[in-house]
Structures are given as structure tokens and as C-alpha cells.
Amino acid sequence: MCCDLKRRFLLLYATQKGQAKAIAEEIWQEAGAHGLEADMHCMSEMDKYNLETEKDPVVIVISTTGTGDPPDTARKFVKKIQDTTLPSDHFAHLQYGLLGLGDSEYTFFCNGGKTVDRRLQELGAQHFYDTGLADDCVGLELVVDPWIDGLWLALKEAFLLQKEKEGMSSDVDAVSSSLSATPHVVHELNLSSEVQNLKLEDGGVRNSDILTQKLVDINLVTSAGDTEPSLVHSVPPVSQSALNIPALPPEYIEVQFQDTHGENPHLSSLISGGTTFEVPVTKAVQLTSEDAIKTTLLLELDIADTVFDYQPGDAFCVICPNNVDEVEELLQILGLSEKGEYFVCVKVKQGTKKKGATRPQHIPERSTLKFILTWCLELRAVPKKAFLRALVECTSDAGEKRRLQELCSRQGASDYTRFIRESNVCLLDLLHAFPSCKPSLNLLIEHLPKLQARSYSVSSSNLYQPGKLCFVFNIVEFPACPTRAVSRKGVCTGWLAELVASLLYPNKNTLDTKGGSPSTEKISIFARPNNTFHLPADPSVPFMMVGPGTGISPFIGFLQHRQKLREEHTDWEFGETWLFFGCRQQHRDYLFKQLKCFLENGTLTHLKVCFSRDSSTAEVAPPKYVQDAIRLYAKEVTRVLLKERGYFYVCGDKKHMADGVSDAVVDIISMEMAVDKLEAMKILAMLREAKRYLQDVWS
């Protein structure tokens, strides 16, 4: 198709961690081969597009963050379209298709996309293509891939309709024939298991005879013995299929090594918004016994010399590094062990084909290589298919190359989900599994996402402990498995555990020679206020708290705060308080036995504790889980929540606890209010909307 006949559409994306942007870039790359031109912009770049005057179709890719908020890059856009003075036909001229990204582990699934979609409809905009909602819980690609496949026909029909409306039927045939002549799946490779028709993105064929012979030999050997697929091995039909694999993402980063002189950026420069505070860790306590299944730690931070402020129920973020051993291992694999302390300059590659290419914001313009790998890139990230596609080009062994092609292909989607996504495979795992894969440093910078700060709930009250901030966490463990050769600890929890070892086990560590006490370690934190998960503004309002395991963390802050208020305001009226706590075994992981103190001094009215792994000799077995305990107090739940207009807080694991609790509350409402389950669900939805049923959950 001639350039002047290429039809334009506006492509907007709003991303929090880069997912939506990567998908938008995939759409942009494929558009050209369909005879279309995607005018791509981040939704925050509102000076570069104008929906009020937009005549062409609009494609929107938008993620969801937090508990259902639009990403930060969409906030201005959402605020603008939510202006209540806009007329109902404000966007009557607009045709759009929207792809929302979310995670069904959270209550407000794809709410970022749904919010924009709903508001555009209210303002008169029309769909030219059905909305897609992709679920990160089961794999975004299950919706994203077919949605993109169907987009091109929908755009074709939208352009034809647009032409007819404009009375320009003379161009319709040209556009239609050009579009229909374009293959439905573009920029993709069709590969047989023998690689007889191997085609590379630049149109050249490289060593196809050698690749063919190697793959045939490999298939002959493995077919006789291996009948089960694995990360490195496939079975029919995937192993014998022609493959549709994504377009090769264009390289756009250039890395120049310099000298070893200079200083690395301060960690505060890695945070785009807010103030970072470097604070000392003054206390560390192991809350679980040595033989508990999980190890739970409480850390105390000294914030007295800062302006850091918080309320009970807030969260904050810890800036953490990648594991030192993993960084060294990666440097060795890259052949850069000797250059870790060298400064590198990261720039956009001249002549790159990537539209709007810029240096990633989380990569300093100049820092040491080790700084980038330690503080900037998420080495543990599960590789996206685009990354696998790029790694294919860095792999010399024919069998390994074919398997990487399978894992990023449409035909290998289930293998990708099983062996990459669900197995939490990271870059190092891949490089061990495919030893002939030798990626360049610039490829890692292009494809590895930003190392995210880790969020934790505050487990203290500034009123109760001025100048102190406490938090609680389990040390996350990833055991070795077929796709992971070694066991690992969580990036942040493992680092924190090492950091405070001298506080936990002072006799096992060398004491500071000056003061005879363990050295004080510091960590960098920044605030992440929670706008809703707070105590009721009216202290006379009753509330219930449900927090098994480390989910109890914010409620310790609630109770400390409430106790101090009771001491300072003896004339106030305070509503009753309930706490449902659960753990495996009373003598191993009952995290806060001092809860009984809150009960004894009247701060806590009711304490209900469950032990899921303890055996009982009682005639009637006690409840094992918090959701079971809640059902035993159905009348009290109904009274507090509905009759006395109290609050209900849930904190902890989403899938295995929070969903069970909400199901229990629905059943209680249904039974006590004598309504059917659907009506009970509506009542719970109203409580959520009124911010009286509140969750702080994780998956």
C-alpha cells in the first residue's frame, strides 16, 4: 500500500509497570504490515492528542493499579472526562476499542479500563470493537492475543464505514483490497518442526540447513524417551507445529562503557514521586518459633529525625536491591564480571525503528553497571513473550532456539503459562536452562522492568509510639523445582532478613568495636498513604477486623491508636471492637500474644482466634479458619455492620482468605436478613461502595 493510503488510528496507553505500554507497542508494530499507521501516545501526553476533535478510530490499552485505580499515567485523563459539566454527546463523534488489563485476584478487576470505558459511553462515544478484559491471574495473553488478532478486521470495517459516511466511496475499494491482501497474522514466523521454512525478521535466511539437521536429530532422540513437556522440552502437537511467533522487537538502547570514576545516583532518584527517607532499623524480633513453617519478623524503624508521617492502616514502600549473588552470577554469564564497577552511559540507539524510543526512566543516564543490575532492573521478573522472542536471536543451539520460539508462540501458549508464568521463571532460570543463550546488556535494559519498591502495611501508631514505625512480614521462600535449580528467598524479605541478622542473633555476629552493640543498618522508604483503610472518624462507631497471619499487621496499629485515644480522652464514647485472628499453630506462629493485653484493658472487646493445624479433643471442633469463626457470630456481624452502621476490615491473602470471608459475610446477610444470595451480594457491594467493607489484600 502506498504511504498516502495508509489509514491512521490513535493508539493510547496508560501503564503502571509497563505491561500496557508493551502491548500498545506490539499493536503499533503490527499496524504497519496491515497497511495502517498507529499514532501512539501515553495517555498522560494530553498535549499530543485531542479526543474532542479526533475523527479517526481510537484504540486504548489501560491497566489497573492498587485496589482498582487507573494507573498514574491516566489520572489527568480520567479526571478530565469525569467532569460532570460535560454534555452526554460530548464524544458522540468518537469510535473506540478498549483493552483493559487487570487481575481477578483483586475485587475491582480491570476497574481502570472499566472506569474509562463506562465514562466514554456516558459521553456518547461508540465502540467499533468489543472491549477486552485481560486477566493477569490466568495469563494476559489468553485475552490479549485474540483481541489483537480481531482488531485489524474491526479497524477495517470502521474505516469502510467512515469512508461511506464521508462520501468517499472511491477510496473504499483501494483500502479494502489492500487490507484484505495483508496476512491476518503479521510479522510472525511460520516454522515447521524441521525448520524448513525458517524466516528471520530481516528477511534473510541464516544457516537454515544446519538448523534443520540439528532439530531433526533432537526430535529423534527426545521423542523416544521424553513423553512429558518441560521448560526445555516440548511434545506433540507443539513440537510438530508450524509456529506463529511475535515480531522481533526493534533494539533501541545503546550502552557505552566508560571509566570507574564517579558516584552512583542517590536511591531517591529512582523514585518518580514523593520523598524518600533513609532511616535506621532499631529493632528486629522473630515472632514465630524456629520450627514454624514460615518465619515472621517484626522490624522497628526510627523516623524521629524525619518528617515522615502516617496513620494506622497506611502502607509504605521499601527500596530494595536484587540479591548480590544473583547480580554476580548474571555478570558472569554476560561475560562482564570484570566490568561491574565501570560506569556506563545509556542512550537511545541512533536510527532505531522503535517509535518514540526514550531511555527508560528507571535507568540512570550514567551509573555503574553493578548499580543498574542491583537497584534498577527486576531480575526476578517473569519474562514476557517479547523478551523470549528477542532471546531467540541470542541463542546459538538449534534445539534451544526452537524451544524458545515455541514458548513465545501462539501454539505454545499453554506451555508458556505452565513453565514460565506459573513456575515464576526468571531470566537467570532461562539462562541456566538454555546455556547457549547469550543476551547483550542492552537487551536486558530494554526488556527487564523496573525493580519495584516493596509495599508493607504499617503495624504501629505514631500516637502510641512517637517517632517509631513498625512492620511485619514473612520471609518469602521459593523452593527449588524442575524450572528453578536453586531455592531463593524473596527479593526484599530475603534482603531485610540478612540486613537485620545482627539484631536478631547478636551473639552470632561480630559486635561493633566502639559501642559493643550490633551496627545499625539503614533502609530507604517512602510513603504510600491509604485513603480509605483507616479507623472510623467517629470513635463511637463499632468495627470488626479480620486478619490471619501477617494480615493482623495494620490492626496492631489500630489497637495501639485506640488504646492511646482511650487513655487521653476518658470522656469519649468508644464503639465495640472485634478481631478475628488465625494462624497454623498456637505455639509456633501466634504472632501477637499481647493481643490479650488489649482485651484486658478494654481496647479490644472481642478476640476470636483460630488455629488451623492444631488438633482438638473438644466434642465440637473449634473453627479452623477466620471465615469459619465469622459464621459463628452471624447475628453480631449483622448487628454491627447493618444495624449499627459499623465498619468491617479484612487484611491478608486474597485468594485463600479474603474471598472466603466475603462469601461468609454474604451468607450471613442472606440468612439474617432473609434475602436471597443475589440480594445479599448487592448489600455487600453497597457496603464496599460506602467504604464500610474495606480490604487490604494481596495475592
From TrEMBL:
Keywords: Amino-acid biosynthesis, Cytoplasm, FAD, Flavoprotein, FMN, Methionine biosynthesis, NADP, Oxidoreductase, Phosphoprotein, S-adenosyl-L-methionine. SUPFAM superfamilies: Ferredoxin reductase-like, C-terminal NADP-linked domain, Flavoproteins, Riboflavin synthase domain-like. Residues 274-536 form the FAD-binding FR-type domain. One of its GO terms (cellular component) is cytosol. Its main location: cytoplasm. PROSITE patterns: FAD_FR, FLAVODOXIN_LIKE. The keyword Iron does not apply. Pfam families: FAD_binding_1, Flavodoxin_1, NAD_binding_1. GO terms for molecular function: [methionine synthase] reductase (NADPH) activity; flavin adenine dinucleotide binding; FMN binding. GO terms for biological process: cobalamin metabolic process; folic acid metabolic process; homocysteine metabolic process; methionine biosynthetic process. It comes from the Eukaryota. It is found in: Cytoplasm. Forms a multiprotein complex with MMACHC, MMADHC and MTR. This is Methionine synthase reductase. The gene is Mtrr.
